[in-house]
From TrEMBL:
Residues 235-250 have a biased composition (Polar residues). One of its GO terms (molecular function) is transmembrane transporter activity. SMART domains: AAA. Residues 7-244 form the ABC transporter domain. It comes from the Bacteria. GO terms for cellular component: transmembrane transporter complex. Residues 222-250 are annotated as: Disordered. Keywords: ATP-binding, Nucleotide-binding, Transport. This is ABC transporter related. Pfam families: ABC_tran.
Length: 250
């Protein structure tokens, strides 16, 4: 693994105005992810995981704080430059899939490859859909696919450009055990073969444990769970380790 940072986050805050007043969703997040690393972000519903992922992927802007993505400070970019950076370096698997309703499965997967001017986009998209077990659904539109099938189309679409950083929000959330394992295998293959940095939000402990690091989000604050050397000590003191252990025990 490289020692170069793929993502550095300094004192990140995200607040939004609501009818009840200002709501702080992220409350001073600090983290550093090296190139080629795989990290899992765990934590309860509503704790801010998707909000953080959207900020890291330059899909949204923070209230304050700094994000450096592959050496570029996001706050220095206007919307156009952010879009260019996303296209060049980032893929995102959304919790709600975000497939284009008017395009069939094959066209959805081809889209980012065509936008990036990749050669043989159709053949590559077909191969990707075959890898996720959907060769028999190429011409189905999103509303003709099951939730798990839509998720696998979204995964194929995220993979086609071999991104530098892949953000995935619950990538196995709608899948059965067999397909979860298949998708996890694909994620880690991409990580190994293309040195893609993986940032996964997940409730899936099997997937989380396959990552090199686990972080726990709780009401807008993140805690690291790291370190094999002092495992016993870490277990008792570290909320992220305790969370993993307690979910496992239940
Ligand atoms: N634009 C917004 N305006 C008001 N509240 C928001 C907004 N976006 C998010 N929130 C609130 O912020 C909190 C964090 O939301 P977020 O989607 O990041 O949670 P999450 O950890 O991804 O949860 P889940 O596991 O259910 O997906 C939630 O309580 C949500 O209601
Ligand atoms: Mg979420």
């Amino acid at each position: 693994m490289s020692e170069v940072s793929a993502i550095t986050v300094n004192n990140l805050v995200k607040s939004v105005a609501t009818q009840e007043g200002e709501l702080t969703i992220l409350n001073g997040i600090n983290m550093d992810v090296k190139q080629g690393q795989s990290i899992a972000i765990l934590g309860p519903s509503g704790s801010g995981k998707s909000t953080l992922l959207g900020l890291l992927a330059a899909l949204d802007s923070p209230t304050s704080g700094e994000i450096i993505l592959d050496g570029v400070a996001l706050q220095s970019l206007d919307e156009e430059k952010k879009a260019a950076l996303r296209k060049q370096k980032v893929s995102f698997i959304f919790q709600s899939f975000m497939l284009v309703d008017t395009l069939n499965a094959l066209e959805n997967v081809m889209l980012p490859a065509e936008l990036a001017g990749i050669h043989q986009a159709k053949e590559k998209a077909e191969a990707m859909l075959e890898r996720v077990g959907l060769s028999h659904r190429l011409t189905h539109f999103p509303n003709q696919l099951s939730g798990g099938e839509q998720q696998r189309v979204a995964i194929a679409r995220a993979f086609i450009c071999e991104p530098k950083v892949l953000f995935a929000d619950e990538p196995t959330g709608n899948l059965d055990a067999v397909n979860s394992e298949k998708v996890a295998d694909m994620l880690f293959e991409l990580n190994r073969e293309s040195e893609t940095t993986l940032v996964l939000v997940t409730h899936d402990l099997i997937l989380a444990k396959r990552c090199q690091r686990q972080l726990l989000m709780d009401t807008g604050v993140i805690t690291e769970s790291e370190g094999e050397p002092n495992k016993d000590k870490t277990l008792s003191n570290n909320p992220a380790q305790s969370h993993l252990a307690s979910v496992e025990a239940s």
